[in-house]
Design brief:
Layout lengths: L13 H4 L5 H45 L5 H21 L6 H14 L3 E10 L4 H7 L2 E9 L2 H14 L16
Antiparallel strand pairs: 1-2
Length: 180
């Protein structure tokens, strides 16, 4: 026996798959579903620009913080060692108090080379009263020399003194002219 064939069912479209309600109700239902899905999405999308700007600012700040290179301890120790070596090298260019006889001899020799007559010498040790300065620079050597001679020869002496003792400092010069 052959069975009768069942009538072919038509493929239902979007409106055909909706519950059996009127066309107007179907339209209202579709609009409601659309509003329920797309209104929250639209609201979230509107908030994204403000949130993105805030996140960009945070990212920029984090990038700046991460870009700052932390100085490792070894690097700081190397810089300290270099600064200490430079300080010691600079200190070695300055004469010490134990070198005062040598310095005085070289000044006398320089004066004689420039035809200047030395009639008085004085060596003094200066200790800064400020304890911090005393610790930083130590004691200073003060050498006083009284010279007689002509001004151009004295100028040559000063120029040669700069080459001989570049760290020296002239505190006082007194000129006396002879009246004849």
């Amino acid at each position: 026996m052959t069975q009768p064939e069942a009538p072919e069912e038509k493929k239902k479209g979007l409106t055909g798959s909706l519950p059996k309600i009127g066309r107007l109700s179907q339209l209202i239902l579709l609009i409601g579903v659309f509003l329920i899905i797309f209104v929250p999405l639209w609201f979230l999308n509107q908030q994204q620009s403000g949130r993105q700007a805030e996140l960009r600012t945070t990212l920029t700040n984090l990038t700046r913080v991460l870009a700052i290179e932390e100085a490792p301890e070894a690097k700081l120790e190397a810089e300290l060692a270099q600064a200490t070596a430079e300080t010691e090298a600079t200190k070695s260019t300055f004469p010490t108090t134990s070198q005062s006889p040598e310095i005085l001899d070289s000044l006398i020799e320089l004066a004689e080379l420039n035809d200047l007559c030395i009639y008085q010498t004085k060596v003094a040790l200066y200790e800064p009263q400020d304890k911090d300065k005393a610790r930083a620079i130590g004691s200073m050597l003060s050498i006083g020399i009284a010279l007689r001679g002509q001004i151009p020869k004295f100028q040559n002496f000063l120029l040669a003194l700069d080459d001989l003792l570049p760290t020296s400092q002239i505190k006082e010069i007194t000129f006396e002219t002879a009246v004849g």
